[in-house]
Hints:
A: mainly alpha, MetI-like fold, B: mainly alpha, flat
Amino acid sequence: MTYLEFLKIYGPQFVGGSITTAMQALLAAALAIMIAIAAGLMRLSKNRLVYGTATVYIEVFRGTSLLVQLYWIFFVLPLFGLSLEKFTAGYIAVGMNLGAYGAELVRGGILSVPRGQWEAATALSMSPAKRMIRIIFPQAFLNMLPPWGNLLIELLKGTALVALISVADLMFVARKINGSTYLSAQAFGSALIIYYIMSRTLVTPFMRWLELVMNRKLGKV
Amino acid sequence: MIMFDWRWSFVWEILPRLAKATGNTVLAALLGYGIAMVLGLIFALAQRTPFPYLNRMIRESVEFIRSTPLVLQIFFVFYVGPQFGIMLSPWTAGMIAIGLHYASYLSEVYRAGIDSVPRGQWEAATALSLSTIRTYSRIIIPQAVPTAFAGMGNYLVGIFKDTPMLSVIGVAELMHTANAIGSEHYRFLEPYTLVGLIFLVISLPTAAGLRRAEAKIRKRMGLRPL
């Protein structure tokens, strides 16, 4: 069987798997961004309890493996009465894990905004919330975009693990095709190429575009 | 709803097996990291040759390995060999895959380190007519170490946390053992929780130790603390 014939037969399955992977990645990214902002801001709090909670969260999720977290959420949480469907468990685990890494980027981004900006906002008697939303966060956001690009690629790669709890993503499809045809190079090779295309032609250009837009909005071009 | 009940007796029963598997996990991480350190240096230096095509090819390969999932690469290495008549044991395949993956990360760390050495150092080495090998080994690499150390430390902890992926091809590390215990006893609470705790207990102090070591190295090299 030539590679073209292989693609003709199994192409639709790869497309289906890629869509699932993309959905997992989008949902996980949305969750990761929300968690990162919340935990990142909490890390800047002076309240010991708030700061401590975020620190414990970040250390636990960064100190253990994504795979361990995924299995724990999928197999152990039901024992506490919280059963998640495999699709949900998948993106929640990936999102919570990458959110912990993102929190440190958010914290670093906010701390990188020059003091004068804080002082100017205070001098204009802005409330702390308004100061954060209108002045500090937009500038911090621009500063942290480049590392977020890398993080989102890590996130996309992380979603491959959800195949291990039988979510029918790209990796799962590749394994299935490998199991039925023994054409390992074609099955796994195609999946590798699709992952590469996704990260190089979707994630990276999107982040570049976002950077450009933010630069313009903040009048930096 | 099944109430969760934590059984200490079960914990004591399975702890010796998990401890043994922890040894394998640490061994896999160290072996993989050793391979990655050497290969990564080759990748980094192979992007600085006088041959633009070779540089470009290595650069793209590194990008490819970096932006595709490790777990898929592990499957690829393990299953593609037999298709062409090369049988690899799970350990060999796993070490090749994880070593290559982290080599691509480390090559970027090395590259950043080498780039951070000021131009004057290269020029001085040329002026003293040092050979390329001596320039790298005596002048450039020692100065690149402090910059590269933080990244290298992060990836040491990273590779340790990625070893559970080796369980998918049957390397008897922590995750694999926890899965086996879980399916033998139909109890997943204790094995998975213990695996998580073991990872925390090893990775947090290691990360803290590496940070301290980094500060020490920077101080010795006369650099300002970060």
